[in-house]
Amino acid sequence: MSTLLAETAGNLAGTAQKTQETLTSTFETLYTQTMNWLPNAIVAVVVLLVGYVVARLVAKLVTTLGEKINLQYAAERGGLVESLKQIGIKRSVPAIFGTVVFWTLIVLFVMSAAKALGFTEVSDAMNEVFVYMPSVLGALVIVVVGLLAASFLRGVVAASADRVGVSYSTGLANVAYYAVVLVTLMAAFEKISIEFALLNQAILIVLGGMALAFGLAVGLGGRDVVAGILSGYYLRQRLQAGDFVTVGTLEGRVREVGPVATIVETEEDGLMNRRSVPNTKMLHEAVR
C-alpha cells in the first residue's frame, strides 16, 4: 500500500513538473514574441496616427483649393451638381474630392502599417486594390467629364430648339443628354475593365437605330418638317404677334409663329377665325 502511494505521489510530482515546464516555456515564448512584435506594433500605431493627421490636412487643403478656384460654381454651371443630386449625393464637389484624397491616403498608410506588423497577405491584398484605384479614378474622371458634356449639350440643344420654335425642345434635349450619358458609362466601364459586351452592343444598336431613323425621317419624310422649322426661325426675326399680313388671298394678323406653321387670325363676316399657314409658305408669300 505504501509502495502504491509512493508511486502515485511520484507520478503527480512528475506531471506537475512537466506542466510547470510547459507553462514556463509557453509564457517565455509568448513574452519573446510579444517583445519582438511590440516595436513593430508601436511603429504601426505611429504610422496610422501620422497617416490620419496627414490625410486630414491634405484633404482639407484639397477641399479649400477647390473652393478657392470656384470648382463648385463650375460644377453647378456644367450641371454636375444636379446630376449628383439625382443619384443621392448632396455634398459639394470640393468636399467630394477632399474625401477621395483622404481615403486614398488612409489606404496607403494602412498598407504601410500592415507591412510593419508583418501582415504581408493583408498588405499584398490592399496593394492589389490600390493598384486598381487609378483605373477607378480614371473612370470617375470620365463620368464627371461626360456628365458635364451631357449637361452642356442638353443646354445647347434646348436653347437651339427654343430659338427655332420647336415645342418639344425639352424632350429633344433630354434625348441628347441621355445618349451622351450612355456613351460615357460605356467608356467608364471599359476603363475599369468591366465587360458588358452584350449591354454595349445593345446600346450601340439603339443609338445606331435612332441615328438611322432620324436620318431617314429627315431624308424621306421629314424634309418638310425641317423646312418648316427653319422657315419659322427666320419668320420670328421678321414678324411679331399682331402684325398684319397678306398671304395670297388670306389677310389677317399674326397670332403665333409655331414650329412648322403660323397662326393667322382673320375676320370673315364679322367673325374672327384662326388659320394655320405653313411656315414655308409664309416665308415666301407673306406681305406685311
How would you sum up this structure, described in words?
Among the domains are: about 130-220; about 230-285, SH3 type barrels. Helices cover about 75% and strands about 10% of the residues. It contains 9 helices and 4 strands. Strands 1-2-3-4 form a 4-stranded antiparallel β-sheet. Strand 2 and strand 3 (about 260-270) form a beta hairpin. The N and C termini lie far apart (about 140 Å). The mean pLDDT is about 70.
Short description:
The protein is built from 9 helices and 4 strands; from the N terminus they run ααααααααββββα.
Q: Biggest sheet: strands side by side, in what order?
A: 1-2-3-4
SSE pattern: HHHHHHHHEEEEH
Number of strand elements: 4
Radius of gyration: 38 Å
Number of helices: 9
Overall shape: it is rod-shaped
The description of the largest β-sheet is: 4 strands, antiparallel
From the structure above, extract its key features.
4-stranded antiparallel beta sheet; 4 strands; rod-shaped; alpha+beta; SH3 type barrels; 288 residues
How is this fold's topology laid out?
Blueprint: H1 2-68, H2 71-78, H3 80-86, H4 93-116, H5 120-163, H6 169-191, H7 197-221, H8 223-238, E1 244-247, E2 250-257, E3 261-268, E4 271-278, H9 279-285
Antiparallel strand pairs: 1-2, 2-3, 3-4
Helix pairs in contact: 1-4, 4-5, 5-6, 7-8, 8-9
